[in-house]
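Reviewer 2 asked us to include a model.

Predict the structure of this chain.
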Amino acid sequence: MQIIVVGAGKMGIALAESLINEGHNVTVIDKDEHKVSKGEHVLDALFIHGNGVQVNVLKEADVENSDIVIATTAGDEINMLVCLTAKKLGTQYTIARIRDPEYLNSISFLQKEMFMDYVINPERSTAREVSRILRFPFVNGVETFARGRVEMVDFRASEKDGITGIPLKDIYCIKKNLPQVLFCAVERNGQAIIPKGNFVIQPGDTVHVVGDVNTITAFFRAIGKEAASIRSVMIMGGSRIAFYLAQMLQNMHIKVSMIEISSEKARTLSEMLPGVNIIRGDGTDQELLESEGLPEFPAFITLSDRDEENLMAGLYAVKRGVKKVIVKSSRDTYSAIMKNMGLDSIISALKVAVNNVLRTVRTRSSRSSAAVVRMYRLVGGKAEALEFIAEGNMPFMYVPLKELNIDKDCLIAVIVRENKVLVPFGNDMIENGDSVIIISKRLGISSLDEVIHKD
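Predicted model (structure tokens):
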């Protein structure tokens, strides 16, 4: 596909790189000559120096023949105008990054009037992800599929769980009362593994399990990881993510204290978030954290704009015995270091945004009726969890799975039929309208018929 990315900031460059890796032809526009020059040296893309709102610049990028224009500049208003102009000039589909909370209530109207086909708000999506993690304080991440009916949860395995040292095919024979989830992926020493029946989980492995919401909850209760309700949270940094998260937590009846170093921002947050305890100060100041009762909080979340400060504050919270610490980091290079230091829950608004856009692009690029509708990257991008809707008259429908040719690097994890969640076996079949969730080590899959074939 021919894709134009307007804005060569962190998100624009990360997105362009991912799109190129998936085989698309990418043009990047930015009015900062230094960013254009830098980008030309690191990416195999056409870079154009200019303002992406201007007609002549978009025409230079061949907007008339483009499939998708993605506006990722720092200005919400500019992104809206880019989409409007690009659509008027003939592009097929537009995506805009809109981040300001002031636009939240009017986004549907703006989307229609400004010809934006898809809107991403990385900060709000990241806040939603954090709120899900807080349901299970002992897990690293929670992803949802099939409109919330299915959850994928990853956690670090230990000997106390009672599932280590046993081949997966024997676990439910030995532990007959253990609620049955599917062990769909394992991260070990930085490698992604799709486990087979003989695979043995070891202490320290990061294990991904999938199932319906009730079964997932019962499974963790059975292995001694029962979720204790979190009633209060301390947040460091008054960022946009923090604002959205505080709103969500208040709706969940969780008390929120937020530390913000800027007096002006702290005052604004106090007005926008009545009921939240806004503390003006430095979130890396250990004396301040102690005076505000950090060790008494069941959860501490670092959401400042500086990764180094988030890491320092997060490590201190772990040292002081806070049960759940979530750290925001935009750098993949920090992830391994953080995990080795005991910081398992790491979030990135950049990754959330890129994943959302890639899913949309794959849906647009696929000619299959069973195109991907949801996507998450696992194990640092070495594997993916993908959701498809099986529609139409696909050759693999109504055929037992054991009679189909399924990609060796893929696992059919779950089939959702109406309100029933099925962990499929050989005699199960995919039917019209099913939501099918797969785990894949092969990246870039855009449709279900790339994974499943009828012999």
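The CA atoms of residues 247 and 273 lie 7 Å apart. The radius of gyration is 23 Å. We have added this to the supplementary material.
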